[in-house]
Amino acid sequence: MNYDICIVGSGAGASPVAYSLAKAGAKVLVLEKGPWLTEKEFYKDELAISLRNVYNPKLEDEQHVIEEQYQYDNGETYWQGEATSESGWSFWNGTVVGGSSNFMSGYFHRLKPIDFRLKSTFGVIDGANVEDWPISYHDLEPYYAQVERDVGVSGKTVDHPNQEPRSTDFIYPPLAEHAISSWIDKAAKLIGYHAIPVPRAILSKPAMGRKSCEYSGYCSSYGCASGAKGSGRAALLNHAVAGGNCVIKPQSKVYKIATDSKGKISGILYYDGRGRKQTATAKIYVVACQAIETSRLLLASTGEKFPKGLANNNGQVGKNLVFSAGGTGSGDFNYNELSEQQVNELKQVGPFINRSLQDWYQINDKNFNGANSKGIAKGGTIDFLFHQNPVARAGGSQWGVDENENDQLVWGEQLKQNLKKEFTTYKTLRFEVFNDWLPNDDCFVSLDNDITDKWGDAVAKVRIGYHNHDLKVGEYLSKKAEKLLTAMGAKNVSSSVSGYPPSNLMAGGCRFGDDPKTSVLNKNCQAHEVDNLFITDGSFMPTGGSVPYTFTIYANAFRVADHIKQKLQLS
Amino acid sequence: MKFISSFFDKNYQTPSWLTNKLSKKNLSRRKMLKGTLKSAGGATVVAALPFSAWSTAPLSLPEQLKSDPWLTLDSVLNHLLPTSKTGPGAKEIQATTYLFNLVNLQPTEQDEIDFIYKGVGWLNGYSQSQLQKNFVELAVQDKETLLRGISQSRAGQNWLNTLLGYIIEATLTPPVYGGNANQIGWQWLEHQGGFPLPSEGTRFYEVPNQQSRVAVDTVGKTAKNIDVVNLVASRQLPKNKGKKS
User: Fold this and answer.
1) Chain A CB within 8 Å of residue B40 CB
2) Can you tell me the distance from the alpha carbon of B65 to that of A231, in angstroms, rounded to the nearest whole number?
3) What is the mean pLDDT of residues A25-38?
4) Residues of chain B numbered 161-220 and touching chain A (CB < 8 Å)
5) How far, in Å, CA of A485 to CA of A490, rounded?
6) A159 — alpha (psi -120 to 50), left (phi > 0) or beta?
């Protein structure tokens, strides 16, 4: 079989390329390591989604090594790796057709013009490797609009101080809102904040062969049983396959991209579902396995012309990995302090909160002591949410303290009281803060020398160093969010900001730029060193912006797809 | 692990499957800078986990309940979450059924199953040494005293915490897993479950093509996907019809 395009991975970075190219008449092959599940296999099952983590590899089979910084007694620091099969800290986010987009919350905020030029706007920050993007918001804007249309984003535009320019309005109206959204709006107005609606990649009405949202109340991190959530599988790959030009091979684990003596890609080597070695060839190759695994694959793909890994003769592959900085916080609403109507409103399950704050997307506050002495800095986004998982909520109910304040197990009537109190006397409103994870020399992907996956290939080793500036921004934003919760009447208001990366929000590692010495990809996400290699997941991002990544990954992949179409002279 | 004869054996160490579970829950407590030097390259790759038999559960639970370990486990669970006017107990929730399925149907690590079973022996050993009776024969107050006693040991605390954790799962997971009978746990705690819920055939360990289950009869269940692949791969691909994209 002669394919025009072979894509490694099937998530948010891969599916727009498969969709666009198949639609334009190219023959597309998609290789996905995980199984091909559909709406019929997704249930609201806490065991499946989190407690037993069914949609990801067992860490004993496939894992990562995470390098953290430690300190000797004399104050010297050093980096030490720990295998995730030992720590239990999974960095897998959905090993199935459609990838992690099946399990995303779908908070689809666009980047803003300023995100494309952080360095020229805010200047150099010591210890950070900030670079401007080689493209502008203007270049990406039409593709955000395309995602809103083709993947399906529900929302509405309101005027607010940090609203980014838009060429089109939302096609799909906002999803049904929870009563607490109006509580947020009221309190925000009172204290001078602008609470804005959150666009979601969830259909509010049936379209494109998919059903609309059924409001089960279990959305974030769950696979969607109605097809309303705009996963790459439901929104794009299904159409690509139905059109006849796209073949998806699930359970195909790519382990190497082979190159010939001239440095040209000669084929993609993979294990099929039965563990047999196979080779796929095409005119153009696209890699989109999520940031860590994309860098790992390139580093593992050594060849005569690429002794340090594919497209890595300048040593840039794996470097400048970024996560999302920030933190989380919460406040409790105690039922005994509220009217019956308020309690009933709070107890509602199903509709979405869909509120965020972007008043401090740029911080301009002389009380903020960041890198810039005038208190000017890139800020971020605050989103609000409820947690629904009951077993997680009950966790810890079996613990109390004895008379000496030591932890002690409780059971019997005490356990029953603890559970009853936990579930029936209050509800917690949570927030999440998203701000830039500054790229730095201590956050990168390499190959581990000791640990291999179940096929015998070296696993990725990830160093997770962060820049202290990220914590300052995260704390600044968290305090702003806490103020809103307090204004709403919440109790036990608190937040937690740390340098630990959220393992589901990753980008970078193969950043794009105009200079091959400091970037892996050119502005079209084509490898500087390999003519027919493109990378379309979040790896391309030199800086990550202060919103979740999926929307921008989708938009950029549509942009790159247009470029590949031109290259193949398809209309 | 060395042979451990009781909850109070000094050689007992919290088993790795359990520390692993606990560390997953406590990631937020992890400290960035730690004072101790860890051995370099000390990581080992654990061999593929053995699974309990999927479809060959030996006897039904009612049969098993007549003797140990299930006789004692049932009694312990009923003591830990007693039936009372404050709400349903382990009995109404069917926590023992949940635990039985956990052992026999869910892909639970054999080490963990062994630990649950060993605890029964340790508990009855302790019960015999203290009161010359097996646990199930004791009055409620004696059961309480005995369980408080073993909870003072690390092994006893780990064992009880394991059972309490599964009582909570039994109370709050979808009924198809054996607990939360007729959603009694959700009703008691005024929790609204989601939809659609899994049913027999779609429990988490029956999801087709799970990587951990590649070797287990998945061929029939993947047929739909294979069909699509074959269909598309063998079909004459249409020429570009000039669609705008």
Assistant:
1) yes
2) 46
3) 97
4) 161, 164-165, 168-169, 171-174, 177, 186, 188-198, 202-205, 207-212, 214
5) 5
6) beta
How high is the pLDDT of residue B1?
54
Give the pLDDT confidence of A62-73 residue by residue, as tens digits: 999 999 999 999
Measured distance between the N- and C-terminal CA atoms of chain A, rounded to whole angstroms: 23
Band the pLDDT of A370: cuts 50, 70, 90.
confident
Residue B184 neighbours by CB distance under 10 Å: 17
Give residue B210's pLDDT. Answer: 52
Report the percentage of chain A scoring pLDDT > 90. 96
For A232-249, the pLDDT digits (tens) are 999 999 999 999 999 999
The CA dihedral of A495, A498, A503, A509, to the nearest 10 degrees, is 140
Residue A562: in which H helix or E strand, if any?
Answer: helix A550-567
A307's CB contacts (< 8 A; 6+ apart) are: none
Flag whether residue B81 sits within 8 Å of chain A, measured between CB atoms.
yes
Helix H or strand E segment including A69: strand A65-71
Chain pair A-B, CB pairs under 8 angstroms: 238
Q: Which residues contact B218 (CB under 8 A, 6 or more apart)?
A: B208, B209, B210
The two tokens of residue B120 are 């029964």
For residue A439, give both structure tokens: 């790229």
Q: Which two tokens stand for residue A136?
A: 């502008």
**Using an 8 Å Cβ cutoff, are A170 and A196 in contact?**
no
Encoded tokens for A314: 């300048």
The interface predicted TM-score of the complex, written ipTM, equals: 0.94
Environment class of residue B13 by beta-carbon count within 10 Å: exposed (0-12), middle (13-18) or buried (19+)?
Answer: middle
Contact call for residues A445 and A323 (beta carbons, < 8 A): no
Residue A54 neighbours by CB distance under 10 Å: 24
Interface membership of B149 toward A (CB under 8 Å):
no
A105, B41 Cβ separation under 8 angstroms: no
